[in-house]
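User: These chains co-purify. Model them together.
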Amino acid sequence: MRKWSWLAIITLISVMVICTILRIEQTALFTFFAAVIAIIPFFISYEQKKPKPRDLMPVVVLSALAVAGRILFAALPNFKPVTAIVIIAGMAFGSESGFMTGALSGLVSNLFFGQGPWTPWQMLAWGLIGFIAGILSEKNILAKPWSIFLYGILASFGFGLFMDTWNILGFVQPLNYKNIISAYLLGIPFNISHAVSTVIFLLPVYKTWLCQLKRIKLKFNLK
Amino acid sequence: MQSLKDYHPIASLFYFVCVLTCSMITRNPIWVLLCLIFAMIYVIQLKGLKYFLLQVLYFLPMLIFIVFMNSYFNSLGLTVLFYLGKGSPVTVENLTYGIISGLALFTILLWFICFNLLLSADDILAIMGKRLPTIGLSLAMIIKYIPDTIKQGREVLLNQKAMLSEQQLTGKQKVKFATRMLTVLLSWSMENSLETADSMLAKGYPAKNRVNYSREYFNSTDAGLILTMVILFLGHLICAFSGSIKFAYYPFLNWTGLTTNRILLIGSLLSLSLILVFPLLLDIINWFKWQRILKQEQIMQQHIVDGIIVYE
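Assistant: Joint model of the two components:
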């Protein structure tokens, strides 16, 4: 199923690129639905595993913590703990659980903050952050603390860029490099706030939470 | 007649998919403005004028951003208005395009406001629950655990503070304090949830013939709504992609499709208006029905003497 997931992501990116190059009028429409469709293979593959109630719980609990954190810090613009928690989820429980934690946190937190055209993009962005965190930790790249922080910062910036992309591709035409770069530059203050929040949340918890989650995984024989 | 809110979530969702697609399908100013006006009316009807004006205020920076991005960095368009700093000329064409595409985005946001009001969390769970049972269950549990987690977090915080009594913490100790609190919170929620999972297993979660309670039933009215929307929507798509609504912004504003085929043009306009007016139409019909009932009741009141209905 991982193959399908990659295929979905590649399709999304190619839809974005093709629409931009051909200057299609309906770029906003096509990329929006491509994003919605890109989430589906991940969901179906999770569904097909038919997890036992116990194996659902890590995703549920970590998503609930992430959403609760986002609600508590809602007053500060773009200061969200979700990215940090999703990274930890991906590292502790593997890439699929990481994706589900991110995607479900995005969906549920928007039940509180209001759904919008950003919902599928947020789900996908956070999902992929968790997914990639899982893959990287499988390959032992995130073993050192500094690499986790670096990944956190990169992920926050990647999240911001990913979120801005739809607004730029769909509603600015024709695009040239000046356009794109300045639009992304305008988003940088928000991304810095996001990156700072991610590091601040990772700082106290990454070590203890990872240890704890691994212990719980072993103790309760979770998949 | 029921209003859009009372339809099955799938039917309402389908309506929103249609409307969103219609709003994003073209940048022809007439079409964009038509969608915008109906979205506006619907939001005002649901939430009131004040709320709508607040949304406009929130959206202004975004609108300025889009207009700026569209006009500052490209020199397309023939009718130069003025030069903005060292940038390219601001022309009527790129200004119009910027404003129209900004308004298109605003329309989408307004439709999502309606979406949030009409489709509650329950409805989203109902849509998910049947087709994706595991994910639907996860969603329901996440929603349940959020207040639990916040409540437990407060309790843990109070406990930890009580242990400190009056002691003042230095910076490093504060980090340690936060770490411990979060650790306690995580282990509590993990173990608590695993207990829930075990009891779910004991109560027969993996059984095959589980039925779940659902308040929503998919009936013929819902099917009727979906069918109507499919027909109108396909009609609109065919008419729209026949080229009659093609609008060129550059090099000068030109409705290139205007002269092609009048029938398709009118068909497209008509089908779009029907799709957009649909929820309002339902509400208006309901209002008139309600007025008729009230009137009948008034007439009945005249016949009642001392609690007995008297016909003369």
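The longest helix of chain A spans residues 188-219.
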